[in-house]
Amino acid sequence: MDRAPGLSVRLKLTLSYAGFLMLAGGLLLAAVWLFLLRYVPQRALIVTPVPGPFPVRSNLLRVFAPRAAVVVALLLVFGLLGGWLLAGRILAPLGRITAATRTAATGSLSHRIGLTGRGDEFAELADAFDTMLARLEAHDAEQRRFAANASHELRTPLATTQALLEVAGHDPGHNPAELVHRLQVVNTRAIALTEALLLLSRAGQRSFASEPVDLSLIAEEATETLLPLAEKQGVSIEVSATHAVATGSEALLLQLATNLVHNAIIHNQPGGGTVWVTTRAVGADTVFLVVENTGEHLAPQTVSSFVEPFQRGSERLHRDHAGVGLGLAIVNSITGAHGGILTLTPRAGGGLRVSVQLPSPDRSSPDHGLRRGMSVS
Asked: What is d(CA 143, CA 233) in angstroms, rounded to the nearest whole number?
């Protein structure tokens, strides 16, 4: 932004200090002048007769004025020098903050101000700026890692398509129907990945309208949609959905529930596994959506990495329903966009427990209790 040149803050403070000092000095001299006129005996002031109707006052002014002018001049010099040094000392932390800002503007986010000393307004500003830089650095690293992973994931279907076409071109007897089928599979995966990336971006930007959403209805809709997949995998789903109203986007919350139930189905014990889906309200301002499943035993450090993009848990993934590695990353982004808390906990008997805590608006109607239970085998 182009600005017209102006006085520096240090110079403004210097002039302010000097002006205030001169004002205080002028008031002090005025008080001394009034004191001399009123309380000093006239004979102590008359040195030589002065013509005129007020000889005492004229003589006093002649003696007092030169000395007052010298005092005012000294005050001006002292105010300018002292104000300049004092303003420079006070504004020194601001200079460090400005230098750090310019360094960050060049793309270097690792620099920190590290202001020491007692707490004051400048210290609070420096600490807040350091905290912002730390968050920006972490966000930048996350974005770089995400971009690298996304580029790799998007390159995979393109490379596969190119390989299939090259093989078909060098093999005249290749079955065209088989090539079309494989290309359709690869293209479907690329479309799914692209849509997941767009959804993740939309959730992160929080560009959605908020409205009351009943999580019990969301959970039941997501479960009914995925019943065919659960039946194919031999996994039973048990739903205990009580009235739990959150505030947010119905489409995004439905995507959240669908991702959780889908993950719980495909990362399960084939033929005999179980998924539990629960919604409930706690108090007047908190609701929960909890999805649990059976499966292998998981280490806490392994579970903590599941919300990272493209972390599929390859050792427990069924390849016939492989996702794009963004399921829980999208869940985490949607939860954060709604001001909620996502908690992943290994189950003692194996499997995973995922809890989504969301804020709830003031409910004018009482809890409707258990809406319905559903068990599918």
From this structure: 35
- 293, 352 contact by CB (below 8 A): yes
Residue in this structure with the two tokens 């139930």, named with its chain if needed? 261
| pTM summary value | 0.56
Extract long-range pairs of 301-309: CB within 8 Å, 24+ residues apart: 303/344, 303/345, 303/346, 303/352, 304/344, 306/344, 306/352, 307/331, 307/332, 307/342, 307/344, 309/145, 309/146, 309/149, 309/150, 309/200
CA pair distance 278, 355, nearest whole angstrom: 9
353 in helix, strand or coil? strand
Dihedral sign for Cα atoms in the order 47, 52, 56, 61: negative
Distances (CA, A) of 297 to 234, 266, 326, 348: 20, 15, 22, 8
Report, in angstroms and rounded to the nearest whole number, the Rg of the chain calculated over CA atoms.
Answer: 38
152: left (phi over 0), alpha (psi -120 to 50) or beta: alpha
Identity at 162, one-letter amino acid code: Q
Q: Could you give the CA distance from residue 377 to residue 232 in angstroms, rounded to a whole number?
A: 10
pLDDT in tens, 224-279: 988 888 888 899 999 998 999 999 888 889 889 988 998 899 888 877 899 999 99
Distance separating alpha carbons of residues 192 and 341, to the nearest angstrom = 26
**What are 164-199's pLDDT values in tens digits?**
788 777 777 777 887 788 788 778 777 777 776 676
Q: How many C-alpha atoms does 92 have within 13 Å on its Cβ side?
A: 9
User: Taking the CA of residue 208 as centre, how many other CA atoms within 13 Å lie in the half-sphere pointing to its CB?
Assistant: 21
Range list of H helices, the chain: 9-39, 55-105, 121-170, 176-205, 215-225, 227-233, 250-266, 300-303, 327-337
Q: Residues 337, 203: contact at Cβ < 8 Å?
A: yes
